[in-house]
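Let us practice reading a record.
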Amino acid sequence: MQNFHGQHDEEKIILQYVGDKKDGKYIDIGAGHSSEISNTAYFYNLGWKGLCFEPTPEQSTPEDWKIVRPRDIFLPIALSDHEGEIEMISTGCLDSFIGEIYSTTERKIQGPNRTVQCMTMMKVLEQYPEFKEVDFMSLDVDTYEHKIFAGMNFEIFKPKLICVEYMVRNHDFRKNWEYLLLPYYEPKEVITGNCFYLRK
């Protein structure tokens, strides 16, 4: 049995819905480190492969990721509701609740803004159509979910299970984006800081 890597053993919930098969697929948005506090590292170690997004080089780079998880496709870009560029600080997007906090009260510890490339998920899937229907998708994007979900067409893009970090700084942000999921997904589980949605 492989060790879990999720912050709160999110893999236990994911396994209930997708099983422990050896050839699954996942999408990891805000992937962070390749193995530390990762909801997908356990499944990679089972033999799965994924499409992973992390625009913050302090967390991961394509070179680092390829050494540890060479089956994955790693993209050092942000997802959003448009194609182009967005402004980020080291912990998130400026156009978010967390970004607003960090750009004011905690500015000194964040350093300068960073401009990063952004795309919609649907545009990315034009290049990687094999990920239109994955076993699960994990999002840890510090209150930028509304922009990312707005760039997804769930008539075409059909993850079976979605795991979202919804609680940040003791605030529940589901009202900002859950309405985009509910026509297609049923809420199933809530654990510390994360909620899970199953495709209807």
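A brief commentary: Helices lie at 10-18, 41-46, 62-68, 97-102, 107-110, 121-127, 145-150, 178-181.
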